[in-house]
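Trying the structure run again after the queue cleared.
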Amino acid sequence: MGGTRLRRPPAPTDAERARSVAVRGGHAALVGTGAPEPVVPLVHHLHADGSAVLLLADDSPVLTRIREAEDGELPVMLEITDRAPVDLREPVRALLWITGRLHEPDAGSARRAALQVADVAPHPGLLDLGHGATLVRLSPGSAVLADAEGSAVLAPVDLAAARPDPFCRLEDHWLSHLEEAHPDVFDALARHLPPPLRATRGARVRPLGVDRCGLRLRVETPQGDHDVRLAWQHDVTTVEELRTQLGLLVGCPFRSASPREVGNVVDEPG
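Done. Tokens:
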């Protein structure tokens, strides 16, 4: 007879998690360009399939290499770093690498691409196009996601078909507010931790992420950090459902916050 198998809490799919990282934006850097250090774009925007619009300084060596290439394309890797909503000892919670080819579109196409980005993700840096900055586009070949749930290789079609998590644009505000204004919440959540972590002296429970499947916590201990996923009773897609599931998980009332105040944590606009 084998030992008891532990069932992992449900989580969004690999493609969903990758799309959520892309939507949140994060910190971007081009690697594998031939430059001695990663090249950080002035502006970056990822589309659903992993293709990207990047704004680079006119003196970037990447532009020189694109223009010198026989086919006008440069194979590169775009690295997106997804960071936690609060100041953790180890703030990186996911990495998304997109491998593809960079090319420089003509001036008219570049302006249209910049306008399309401005419609969905306004950024003052876009105004520098043609005034010290040049737009390039990344055509993706594949993507790799690495986070606490595991790692996965994804094709552009996988990314395009997946939906980002319904809370991925709002979680930073919610979770940072939760830690700052309702610290007793984490005392209550600690009862759901695995027994060894509950028994660890000096452990601190921190918010790491929230999604349709549950709440992610980072437990910082003197010996190291541990990520724990707490599942909702069922998938949630609305703020009302999230409020209900959070209340059930915490076990209202809080020491210093009423059940209604817990609901207010996820009602406040981002």
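The domain at 14-161 is CATH 2.30.110.10 (Pnp Oxidase; Chain A). Worth checking whether this holds up in the mutant runs.
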